[in-house]
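Hey, I'm writing a tutorial for new members on how sequence and structure tokens pair up, and I'd like a real worked example in the thread rather than a made-up one. If someone can provide the structure for the chain below, I'll link this post from the tutorial.
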Amino acid sequence: MTRINEIRSIAKTWGNNASTLFFAAVLIVCSVTVGCSSDKPKPVTATNQTPVTQPESPLPAMSAPAVQAEKKPATKKVVHKKPATVSYADKNYGVIFEYPRRYAIETGEAATSLLASSPLAMNFVQPGGVALAAVELPEMGFANTDFSSAFFNVSIHKSLTADQCTEFAVPQPKIATPASSTDSSSTTAATPAAVSTATSSDVQPASSSKLTLGDLELRATEAVTGEGTRQSDSKYFHVFQNGACYEFALNVTTVASEDGVMKHVDRDKVFDRLEKILATVKINPVAAPEVTAEAPPTTPASITPAQ
């Protein structure tokens, strides 16, 4: 009986200890479970989502060029200036020369009208010359002087021979004395020869000199004419080319004031400008026009009737 009570007492004590051990085990298991659950990563939701910034990769550093490129100059607008001289060319007669752009030029009938102001427009030994071109100097360069006009002209005579081309119609002229401030009435006027009516038989050829101009050998002469206070100085040059006689004339005309206040123009300076035009003259060969010889009309032989 006593033994039974001891067994019950031991069973009761074991039961109490077992309950305690079980409870303790449960606590240990719960604590372990809670600890593990707290270590698990929390699920990412849309509300607590943290933006992730991608690290920027550093760009490779570019080394500066050793020599800095030169700055290109700003492009300037190119202004094409017109040449200072103009070329004249006559295809029919092969004459070419250059003259300053600011000079005036006349050709054909206009050139003939311009030369009409000169006392001696042409100096061929026979009439029949034709004016091709005339270049006139502007008056603005000779202000406050007795300068009246100056021109360079080209004429041609197709009927003269080579020997006749070396001659000039005007004989040695009388030099007119310019009017002075003290006595203007003492001026002697020289009357030029009339070329339009002169012929080789009644005109004494003027003496001439030679002048070489490039490949051209020109005959030259000078003439001075005047009337009253007006004086005209001219230089003439002849050359025979292309079967015709070419004439190049330089003329300077002055008109002195009656009171003598106006100063005289430097004629040498004016002629120097005209001679610069003459220095550019060239004569190109031109083809002679073809002439077809026509057969003379045949006269039928007269028939004498038989007697």
